[in-house]
Amino acid sequence: MSSNKSLSQGAAWAFLLGAVVMEVVGTSFMTISAREDALWGYAVMAAAIAISYFLLAQAVRAIPLGLAYAIWEGLGLTLIALVGLSVFGEALSFAKVAGLLLAVGGIVMISSGE
Predict the structure, then answer these.
(1) What is the pLDDT of residues 12-57, one digit of tens each?
(2) φ, ψ (nearest 5 deg) of residue 38
(3) Would you place residue 2 in the very low, low, confident or very high pLDDT band (cuts 50, 70, 90)?
(4) What is the pLDDT of residue 104?
(5) Which structural domain range is residue 64 located in?
(6) For all residues of the chain together, what is the average pLDDT?
(7) Do the beta carbons of residue 72 and residue 19 sit within 8 Å?
(8) Does the chain have fewer CB atoms within 10 Å around its N or its C terminus?
(9) Per DSSP, which regions of the chain are E strands?
């Protein structure tokens, strides 16, 4: 296993961003598959989520786990809510928007503490 120093911060953040994107792709295909009963979509979902976890694991080689996971989950949650709104026509209630803002605020607090 290589040391943490072998991965630059830039590469780690790129891995983390890729992990977020793949999480959103996987979750979106989960919704498509569930609504359309499309088995191929489950395969895309599983692959995207597996890639997401792999990329997240690469990111935590140079980014603290708590920070990486908070960003992965919070940014992923926010983007998935936006995909739900724009692609699937799901409503965003005041409570959902407030929850997303609290999640983003939590990520900012975790990031500033690192």
Answers:
(1) 999 999 999 999 999 999 999 989 988 999 999 999 999 999 999 9
(2) -100, 105
(3) very low
(4) 84
(5) 4-113
(6) 90
(7) yes
(8) N
(9) none
Task: Name the residue with tokens 């960003």.
Answer: 71
The letter for the amino acid at 14 is A
CA–CA separation, 63 vs 60, rounded Å? 5
Nearest to 27 by CA among 106, 103, 90, 97: 90
Number of helices (H), then strands (E), in the chain: 4, 0
Between CA 54 and CA 70 the distance in angstroms is 16
Considering only CA atoms, give the Rg of the chain: 16
Taking the model in full, what pTM does it have? 0.84
Cβ pair 20, 14 in contact under 8 A: no
Amino acid letter, residue 72:
W
CB 66: neighbour CB atoms within 10 A? 13
The contacts found for 96-100 with CB under 8 angstroms, 24 or more apart, are none
Residue indicated by tokens 């959103």? 24
